[in-house]
Write a structure and sequence with these properties.
alpha/beta, globular, 8-stranded parallel barrel, 19 helices
Length: 639
């Protein structure tokens, strides 16, 4: 074997082929030796399909386009034994002895044309360079920078961080030939709330009167003119992206105008009126770019107004059940296949999916393993005309360990015919240097969360977004909250959670066998996974304790509620204490504030119900002050 760099040739002027050659050279230099003497890279005008063949020490790459050539080089490196199971140079798998190259691995091409990593939090943008390289090496081809320019940045990239890092992140993503997307819930900011006093007619009627808080009155010509002018300025400040996102307010429902609804315009219609108006501005400013129409919450039903030619669908089924696939025979998910098809039919060639498999805010502190659900979801989307599928990476902290869902998404978006077993085993082989026990551990965790995440239709709903007083009296509840469970079904929910804890016990029994690993690389990987395992444990146990509160409210007495509240507070406090051992600031503070918002307030509310008038008023005063302080901390966290 030789340690010399092979002779590499590629088409003159092909920037991506040059990147492919550089990546090949850089990786081969990390080997003690290899059998490659020459690599010839050839590609056509466009496309991601590729093939390569090896004969002796000579490799020939034949690709449809430059992007295909880059994928081919990564596939060649994988054939030698390299892998990138998680972001970061320290996570690159470098073979001690390169594998012998086969003559060919056959022609390959993606099942879904667009495969997007959505960076949606400070924690992920902080490591944007590592995530972008990881995405390219795992054959994703789109980076979506999900930003929050006007809010607290709890589930998106904060404005200050975005401005500081955008130039380098965009340049790096472009160097890998990535499609680039930008934006978030930016529509309300296009109509300044300060205009309300002088122009209340521009704002929606809610509860029978004009309301300055949300969205706009799409039937008011001046409101439309205002959002078009401000969208023009925003696009000019953010040139060069391929897909722009200026979504409505992030509400479960009720952010649109009742007068427009009385005139026959659904929430989806009102959203499309606004989007089409902005799309006109975008067509002039950025020809060829697309503007997203968001099918989400109260706009899940397809609009009856045709989209402009440069408007793309973003189908975001956040209210689905993640215990089962999107097309499963399940009372919550049953509507989604038809909703997808009806929406997608309006956007030929422009139908995109925004999925939540990596969302540790939706699932509360972890993105639980769900490889089989991801596989089935992607198979459905591929078979039903999805032009692109993205996965939102967000949470209150960085992933504490290599994330199986992220790896599974990248692999399965390219080829959803892989089995869940294959994906788990390959991931474990790369991360833990063994596929002996860890695949069974992850499979047991998947079983645990399949019980935990199962929902009845009435549990697939959201509460929240009001004044501080409204938030205290009616705390926010996300999909799957224990406090969404109807009285008649609390016992069923508790039984599901008992099954979840049984499966968790199975997973932890498997994991315990690995804690005495002596190999340094394996032991470091297992210690990182121990942090993830603890979060999974804490999340499932905390949910069980919250269900106990609901059971005590339904069938117990005040003493039962008090005891259940005490137990839930214990688990919440323990989580907040233990996570300091493996999570750094400011993410500890971020996690504590989110847990207070979605869990602590609900526990407080259960305890308040037991107090008499005087005690309740005194406690309410104290809680109001705590809430003001915490909301100020949330606003200041990334400011």
């Amino acid at each position: 074997m030789s340690a010399a760099v092979p002779h590499i040739t590629f088409p003159e002027g092909s920037a991506l082929a040059a990147v492919a050659a550089e990546e090949l050279t850089t990786h081969l230099a990390r080997l003690g030796g290899h059998a490659l003497a020459s690599v010839t890279i050839g590609h056509g005008a466009a496309g991601e399909g590729f093939d390569w063949s090896a004969r002796g020490g000579a490799v020939t790459v034949t690709a449809d386009g430059p992007q295909g050539a880059l994928h081919a080089v990564y596939d060649l490196l994988e054939a030698l034994g390299f892998a990138w199971p998680a972001p970061g140079d320290d996570m690159t798998v470098i073979p001690e002895t390169p594998d012998e190259l086969p003559a060919s691995r056959g022609r390959q091409s993606p099942a879904i044309a667009g495969r997007s990593l959505i960076l949606g939090h400070h924690a992920f943008m902080a490591d944007a360079a590592a995530w972008i390289r990881w995405a390219a090496r795992n054959r994703l081809n789109t980076i979506f920078f999900h930003i929050d320019e006007h809010g607290a940045g709890l589930g998106a990239i904060p404005a200050r961080q975005w401005q500081a890092m955008r130039a380098d992140a965009v340049a790096l993503a472009r160097s890998f030939g990535m499609t680039l997307e930008l934006g978030g819930h930016g529509l309300p900011a296009l109509l300044p709330r300060a205009d309300f006093a002088a122009h209340p007619e521009r704002f929606p009627v809610r509860g029978g009167q004009r309301d300055a808080r949300y969205n706009l009155n799409v039937l008011d010509a001046d409101a439309i003119a205002t959002i078009k002018a401000n969208a023009s300025a925003w696009i000019a400040a953010n040139p060069g992206f391929d897909v722009y996102h200026l979504w409505p307010d992030d509400l479960p429902e009720g952010g649109w105008c009742e007068d427009a609804a009385a005139a026959g315009h659904t929430a989806s219609d009102q959203a499309m009126i606004a989007v089409n108006a902005i799309a006109e501005v975008l067509a002039a400013a950025e020809p060829g770019a697309q503007l997203a129409y968001l099918s989400y919450h109260d706009t899940e039903a397809p609009p009856r107004i045709a989209p402009a030619a440069n408007v793309a669908l973003i189908f975001a089924p956040r209210l689905r059940c993640y215990a089962k696939a999107i097309d499963a025979d399940h009372p919550v998910n049953a509507k989604y296949p038809d909703l997808w098809r009806a929406n997608a039919a309006l956007f030929p060639g422009r139908a995109r999916v925004f999925e939540y498999w990596l969302d540790a805010i939706l699932f509360k502190i972890v993105a639980p393993p769900m490889v089989d659900v991801i596989r089935r979801d992607l198979a459905f989307y591929a078979a039903n005309g999805a032009d692109a599928v993205g996965a939102l990476a967000t949470g209150s902290m960085p992933f504490p360990a290599p994330n199986l869902n992220a790896y599974a998404f990248a692999r399965l978006a390219w080829n959803p015919k892989l089995t869940a077993k294959e994906v788990r085993e390959t991931f474990c082989l790369h991360v833990f240097r063994s596929a002996l026990h860890m695949p069974a551990y992850f499979e047991a965790l998947e079983r645990a969360f399949a019980f935990d995440l199962d929902l009845r239709p009435e549990e697939a709903r959201l509460r929240g977004r009001g004044t501080i007083e409204e938030t205290i009296h009616n705390p926010p509840a996300d999909i799957g909250s224990a406090f969404n469970v109807a009285d008649a079904h609390v016992g069923d929910a508790q039984q599901r959670q008992e099954h979840a804890l049984d499966a968790l016990e199975d997973a932890e029994a498997i994991f315990a066998k690995l804690m005495d690993a002596t190999d340094e690389a394996r032991s470091q990987a297992i210690l990182r996974e121990e942090c993830h395992r603890y979060l999974c444990h804490a999340r499932l146990v905390l949910q069980a304790s919250l269900l106990d509160i609901r059971a005590a409210e339904v069938a117990g007495g005040p003493r039962d509620v008090t005891d259940a509240v005490k137990q839930a507070r214990y688990h919440l406090t323990r989580l907040e204490t233990e996570m300091r051992g493996f999570i750094r600031e400011p993410y500890v503070a971020n996690t504590r504030l989110l847990m207070w918002l979605f869990t602590g307030l609900a526990i407080d509310r259960a305890e308040d119900a037991l107090l008499d008038g005087g005690q309740a008023r005194k406690r309410l005063k104290n809680r109001m002050e705590t809430a003001r302080q915490n909301f100020a901390r949330i606003q200041a966290l990334w400011g």
